[in-house]
Amino acid sequence: MASHNPFGKSRSNLSNMSDANEPGRPSVPSKVKFSRRTNSGRYVSYSRDDLDSELSAADYANYTVHIPPTPDNQIMDPSISQKVEEQYVSNSMFTGGFNSATKAHLMDKVIETETTHPQMAGSKGSSCAIPGCDAKVMSDGRGQDLLPCECDFKICRDCFVDAVKTNGGICPGCKEQYKNTELTDLVDDYGQQRLPGPEGSSGAKMERRLSLMKSTSKSVLMRSQTGDFDQNRWLFETSGTYGYGNAFWTKDGNLGSSKDGDGEGVEMQDFMNKPWRPLTRKLKIPAAIISPYRLLIFIRVVVLALFLTWRITHQNPDAIWLWGMSIVCEVWFAFSWLLDQLPKLCPINRATDLQVLKEKFETPTPSNPTGKSDLPGLDVFVSTADPEKEPPLVTANTILSILAAEYPVEKLSCYVSDDGGALLTFEAMAEAASFANIWVPFCRKHVIEPRNPESYFSLKRDPYKNKVKSDFVKDRRRVKREYDEFKVRINGLPDSIRRRSDAYNARDEIKAMKMQRQNRDDELLEPVKIPKATWMADGTHWPGTWLTPGTDHSKSDHAGIIQVMLKPPSDDPLHGESEGFLDLTDVDIRLPLLVYVSREKRPGYDHNKKAGAMNALVRASAVMSNGAFILNLDCDHYIYNSEAMREGMCFMMDRGGDRLCYVQFPQRFEGIDPSDRYANHNTVFFDVNMRALDGLMGPVYVGTGCLFRRIALYGFDPPRSKEHSSGCCSCCFPRRKKKSNVSEENRALRMDDDEDEEMTLSLVPKKFGNSTFLIDSIPVAEFQGRPLADHPSVKNGRPPGALTIPRELLDASTVAEAIAVISCWYEDKTEWGTRIGWIYGSVTEDVVTGYRMHNRGWKSVYCVTKRDAFRGTAPINLTDRLHQVLRWATGSVEIFFSRNNALLASPKMKLLQRIAYLNVGIYPFTSIFLIVYCFLPALSLFSGQFIVQTLNVTFLIYLLIISITLVLLALLEIKWSGISLEEWWRNEQFWLIGGTSAHIAAVFQGLIKFGFGYEVAFTLTSKSGGDDVDDEFAELYIVRWSSLMIPPITIMMVNLIAIAVGFSRTIYAVIPQWSKLIGGVFFSFWVLAHLYPFAKGLMGRRGRTPTIVYVWSGLVAITISLLWVSIYPPAGSTGLGGSFSFP
Fold first, then answer.
1. How far apart are CA 1110 and CA 920, in angstroms?
2. Is Methyltransferase one of the keywords (predicted)?
3. Which of 419, 557, 654, 658 is catalytic?
4. What is the distance between the alpha carbons of residues 635 and 197, in angstroms, rounded to a whole number?
5. Interhelix angle for 1074-1090 vs 1092-1099, to 10°?
6. Can 1028 be counted among the known catalytic residues?
7. Most CB contacts within 10 A, which of 129, 165, 205, 862?
8. Cβ atoms of residues 976 and 296 within 8 Å
9. Whole-angstrom Cα distance, residue 406 to residue 520?
10. Of these residues, 140, 846, 868, 880, which one is catalytic?
């Protein structure tokens, strides 16, 4: 039977078929070398002979030492436990990239302040007592020293191995024989117990089988002798069986045994007898609201059609040019409104049940007797690019909120992408990791919400409400003091780094001058030129961007950097002690994995901005932790609801959740002025449009606050995609289905529409790159992301308890591989950015990435939680807001002119979903017609004509019905979405402001880019650091000039002058045309009312010069207009005015 699993062949063959040697692609180094530098200056260099070799028969910690064996430096024994190796990895900074060796620099300290948490990089520990050795003593999960001898002689890992191997197992301290010479047993004796594996199976193999790190030869997707996926063999070796197409553990199976060991396992009958409880519920809009809503849409469509027909057949011969422009604009407005309104026909709400999630995944059951969490791994991505525009304190608070989130600590990992490679960001993250040692246990102990310290300590409500523990006041006071000191340290980092670098550079200059004097006795000395390097806290050069940019040390030219700030936690809970800063007796003090990543950048490579940085994180996390799900957050968006990750996981783990590509959360913002002058909350989009899309194939991806399925990002089709043909004509003209003998389980990882097309072995490196670590992690991530097979109706499920196995520990070769996959050359000749990961080619890479997933048949879900899931900041300054809208609109124009246009969507996308995506690419073009229509009232007043020949009853009735239906639709939208009428009106106002400024500029920029090839520059939106304590909304009143302001200002001034001219002409007219004046003035006031927030923003703070300038400008314009009409009145006018007549 043919198999479509592309990952079945030996990994050694992949390297031979790699396209690394193709013309035009940089050659890949044959081996990765990495070294360590100790305090004494000793370098230890490691290399792996072949990254692409067959690793299934050996462990991943396979090194060769390139210095002569000495008592303090021996070849690592592969049988040594990786726990001690992980301690070294977490204290080392890994750097490398194209044409450079991967080095692991042992960090004596990461920050100036002392670190105490055992997971923290650079944490202090006892030094080895062997003379000449400066390594740290082995330690357990609490940071306590592991002393193998009863005499408590302190010895490091390398010296202990040397004593066992070469010294006969004699303790260097008491000269007695070690009672225990196995380091693995030594670690277990100190409380680091492993979860016992099934009876009759190897514990190490079972751990590796469902490892969260990487798959080996005994991975969960077993291979047959032919190299293909063998489902029967997998079922046999795991004692699984089928129940309506789903695997579950048998009565006498390994993982199905009970605590008492009586062999009472899980049977399908147990699932049948037990009532199945869903994790989520779909809440439909009441019929009393949605039915009138749909009816009004239909009525308005009919009225618009009749109105446009009447307008076209009733021309205005007195001003045919005015009539023609208005007709074109009105037809486009009707088309644009239809595109926006049709996807809103099926809005829905959803709800989650966290209690059911806990019962299914974290409660002791026969398949999970220990009650350990069976939830899948989750990797959180935080992206930042410039510490000047994105304050490190804001990013640090976001990191702290992630580390304190309510998700299994051992399943949670956080990756920080620093695309600027700044030492300031690096040390700020290290400070955040150090402060997390206090903040995270405090949050867990007292159930703190929100878990962003800046937001929590700034709450205006009573912080003691619902707090029952007697020591809460004392703990809160202590933590508040520590946080204040933490903020001072963060704010002082720029000066600290600058002073430190100046001191080290001065020292190097003095040394260079001394050397020059020694070499040249009497010769004239030339000035010594020393590179102005940036220095880290341990006295070594920073490998990233220097304060004074130089070669290999600038924003666009630096090596890749990976630093494990917090090493992976132990698998079992680690409770604190009563003695110390806080009483943490019953509190788990473990912290999630925290990794700093700065991808390599080199001249001549297109790094693709944020999308490229996110793809680098996808690959690095796949190698290091391989969480089945990915949550991406902007650096200024923190977790406001600590249960948000669990709520998103309810959708992914529910029945049918394996077809969900992502769960999008709404964006909520803080620090916005109470009136929301520029519609920064964007509630109409997040609470109306997104809820409506949730009733179709799901909401669009909006760039942050999104929980992804890793497999969906890899470009695979959803499971059972052939059963869900959702084309617009599928009901009338169904496509003929091809028969396939391949089971759906074998086709879980399918990337091609044709079922008979197999992803051959040679195509795997061409799609994903030549990293075998990354390729082997794909089927593991797919399996772990499956829903729980706890009911016959759950398709493509996984057995209960399958993810309770501890993940493998980090070793140096794993981090070295992560350095390789974030190098600048890795994506060459691959499909990263074109089909896999975040999609390149647009400044709004988020929308394009979501569109590609929906286009392959995936669905998404909109998760609105009772307590906001995430909160962030938004630019409240007018100029910043316009530039933000400009970037969004520019991306939409790029989408329209690209292959991502919804007109080219596949049949898998539903018709209404396609219309919604089509509107995303078309809406900026409405600005062309909107600007013309905003000038029409002024042209009407100047010319004395109107868009219709006369304001007859038919025109007014049509206008009245269209207006009334618009208002009623708005009221019903407010009813089912929960927004306020003021928010709806603010959105209407900013629609016109943005349409007459940023949108029109985006159209011209898009036309220039695709017509002349000129690339649009990306402007980073500034994130507020909240430093101005005198006025929280000081940014609101700052007026910064931008060319985007010219069209709205022109529209306002022209309409004001036109009103004055229209009144003057009517007053002096022999036969005043009051009806035409009223029509023109009405529409002019409609334009000015929408532009009122813009005018208010230009005036700045009350009492300042801009207010006077613009008020006097308007008065002068009106005065001049009246004076001109008075001096040159219309011919034949006999008096001031005339008789008032209405049609």
1. 35
2. no
3. 419
4. 40
5. 60
6. no
7. 862
8. no
9. 66
10. 846
